[in-house]
Design a protein that fits this description.
With 351 residues, the protein is mainly alpha-helical. Helix content is 58%, strand content 5%. The strands form 2 sheets. It has a 4-stranded mixed β-sheet. The structure holds zinc ion.
């Protein structure tokens, strides 16, 4: 049987349900059956929206977590290396081969991250939320940062460290450099604000779908500030919405840096996140001063009102920029084939 036939046969066998779940994988078919439960287990999420089906990805797509729950994986960069990995089980392999396997496995985990959510979450609600400004940058950045941070745990859970000895000694570079550094800076900042253990905000965001991710960030920001003590209950929704719009607008702008060389993307991602955190702090302080001052002179009240009005006006996140053709395409959570050159990565069907 040729390698190509083997992959076709593995997918057919997997999708027909004739596979072994609940075992340490020793074949590609067993890996396909067990890779999603392992992701669910290490994440602590309430559920996965994966429907159990795996198909070959279309041209130019490395991986895709489709809204219908189907997982699309590229043959050349993911399915074939993993088939090969099991055919050489336990053998000593070159760093180049181990890196290739590692890249395939981190993409699998990244795609499974998209399917994770709290119990009862729906794909339809996630799909609608994913279209809002800044949602895609946060979800892709979280999926990629979390997948890389937890990959070694994932490989151990799946027994891959036994199949490909030394796979934990090589490194795969994260994709989405326009998003990952910003997500890392923001989640580190939130860990610090809230006193959570390092990495906990990232883990918590990974357990949410796009529907719950920004609301969770806003909740952490709001509750760790002095705002709950001074904002009247009837003003709280407006204050939270201002914070959310500030965050979303900064993260939406990260999309403008995609397609540039990695170093440029990463540098702009970091500087944008730092500005975002500064704006957030300014907004919190302004609101705290506004609501805390028990008696204000007319001049102070006017000054504060104009300071607040200079910030992002309250609007629902639904008021996004007009949807373009490219905007419609990015509503699918797609990972593009990694290009060896720093030419623009953006293409048809990219997400
Ligand atoms: Zn993705």
């Amino acid at each position: 049987m040729t390698a190509i036939d083997e992959i076709h046969s593995a997918l057919q066998q997997h999708n027909s349900g004739r596979h072994a779940a609940g075992v340490v994988p020793r074949t590609l078919v067993e890996l396909l059956a067990n890779h999603a439960p392992a992701a669910l287990s290490i994440s602590g999420a309430g559920q996965t929206a994966w429907n159990g089906q795996v198909v070959e990805a279309g041209e130019g797509i490395l991986g895709l977590a489709h809204w219908d729950g189907t997982l699309h994986l590229d043959r050349e960069c993911i399915l074939d290396p993993l088939r090969e990995m099991y055919s050489r089980s336990g053998l000593i392999q070159s760093d180049a081969m181990l890196t290739r396997y590692r890249e395939a496995l981190v993409t699998m985990l990244h795609e499974q991250s998209h399917f994770l959510g709290p119990s009862g979450a729906t794909q339809e609600a996630a799909r609608q939320a994913f279209k809002q400004p800044g949602s895609r940058a946060l979800e892709e950045g979280v999926a990629e940062a979390w997948a890389h941070a937890h990959l070694d745990d994932y490989l151990t859970t799946l027994g891959v460290d036994q199949v490909a000895p030394g796979i934990d000694q090589v490194r795969a570079e994260p994709s989405y450099q326009a998003f990952v550094p910003a997500v890392t800076l923001l989640t580190d900042d939130l860990d610090e604000r809230t006193g959570l253990p390092a990495g906990e905000t990232l883990r918590a965001l990974n357990r949410e779908t796009a529907e719950g991710q920004w609301p969770l960030v806003v909740d952490l920001v709001y509750c760790s500030s002095g705002l709950p003590e001074c904002v009247p209950p009837n003003r709280e929704p407006v204050v939270r919405l201002r914070l959310e719009n500030t965050l979303r607008e900064s993260f939406r702008s990260l999309e403008d840096f995609e397609g540039h060389p990695r170093g440029y993307e990463a540098a702009r991602s970091k500087s944008t996140a730092r500005q975002c955190i500064d704006r957030l702090n300014t907004e919190i302080q302004t609101a705290e001063r506004y609501f805390q001052a028990p008696t204000r002179t007319p001049d102070q009240a006017t000054a504060l009102r104009s300071a607040l009005s200079g910030l992002a006006p309250p609007k629902t996140p639904a008021q996004s920029r007009p949807t373009t053709t490219a905007g419609a395409e990015v509503t699918n959570r797609t990972r593009q084939r990694i290009q060896p050159t720093p030419t623009p990565l953006r293409g048809q069907g990219d997400g």
